[in-house]
Design goal:
Order of helices and strands: HHEEEEEEEEEEEEEEEEEEEEEEEEEEE
Number of helices: 2
Structural class: mainly beta
Number of strands: 27
Low-confidence stretches: 1-25
Shape: elongated
Largest sheet: 3 strands, antiparallel
Radius of gyration: 30 Å
């Protein structure tokens, strides 16, 4: 009976005490631990991501989702979310591609969502002008309001105002007033929400330093309301990411190969990070070490 109790005590230590004490197992190469009957790298193995010590119970790490990878002992990418349509919330849109929602991007021109699946055309509670009429943004959509012409006035910045004498058009804060017969007309928002490029002209883009990709590896930047060809990403990073500029990789969590012996993963700052060293004759193909 005592011998049996002793055996139970040892088994309890193996199962319960492993987390605190650790347990020697068959030797693996440095940096690897034994999980089941296989030596694995807990920093990169999707089945035992973050495993430690004797790889039992809470020490066995976690199993990453099918669309995730294990990097530095943590599951990254994926997220398990699915979608059937684009998702819009708090003025940010996530485009649904192949059943997976992408990263959040702000609605064009800072607009609010008009529904759970689509961006609107304006920011809520904003006032503007439509010729002589005041318009108000509600739920991401412009609603027509009072007509200033009824009082012999013009519409300026979302309010009725007295007309002013002029010699040229006037552009202020992305709004243009056309000078007609020596009098300024109602203010209208520059096309596409662009900024002014001068005191009398609308520009062609909005938001200084906004970046738009013009090709796989090139982009243009908005400077003072005008698009300027700014960069070529081919050296050294190679790719252009909309709204960001030059990056090494576009999709967080995607994998690739640095060469035939090392896989890599795309980090949240869109840079490649080493993932796994292929050993025992295996070669890296499409981000995975494949045995020859």
């Amino acid at each position: 009976m005592r011998k049996f109790a002793a055996i139970l005590a040892v088994l309890s230590w193996v199962i319960i005490g492993c987390e605190d004490e650790g347990k020697k197992v068959e030797a693996c190469k440095e940096g690897l631990i034994k999980c089941g009957s296989t030596c694995i790298d807990p920093n990169t193995n999707k089945d035992y991501c973050g495993a430690r010590a004797c790889c039992l119970g809470s020490n066995a790490g976690v199993t990453c989702a099918a669309d995730q990878t294990c990097s530095a002992g943590k599951c990254v990418g994926g997220g398990g979310e699915t979608c059937t349509a684009d998702l819009c919330s708090n003025g940010k849109i996530r485009v649904c591609t192949d059943g997976k929602p992408g990263a959040e991007t702000a609605c064009a021109g800072g607009a609010d969502c008009k529904s759970a699946t689509a961006c609107g055309e304006c920011k809520n509670d904003t006032l503007d002008c439509d010729d002589t009429k005041i318009k108000t943004c509600e739920n991401g959509v412009w609603k027509e309001g009072a007509d200033c012409k009824a009082d012999g006035k013009i519409c300026f910045a979302g309010a009725c105002a007295a007309a002013a004498p002029c010699e040229t058009n006037v552009c202020t804060d992305g709004k243009i007033q056309v000078c007609t017969d020596g009098m300024l007309g109602s203010a209208a928002t520059c096309a596409g929400g662009a900024d002014c490029k001068s005191a009398s002209e609308c520009g062609e883009c909005v938001d200084d330093n906004a970046i738009v990709c013009t090709g796989e590896s090139t982009y243009k930047m908005c400077v003072a309301g005008v698009w300027v060809d700014e960069g070529d990403c081919r050296y050294p990073s190679g790719l252009c990411l909309e709204g960001v500029g030059c990056v090494e990789c576009r999709t967080v969590g995607e994998t690739g190969c640095t060469d035939s012996e090392m896989s890599q993963v795309c980090t949240p700052d869109h840079k490649w990070d080493p993932l796994e060293l292929c050993e025992d004759g295996a070669v890296c193909i499409d981000g995975e070490c494949i045995s020859a």
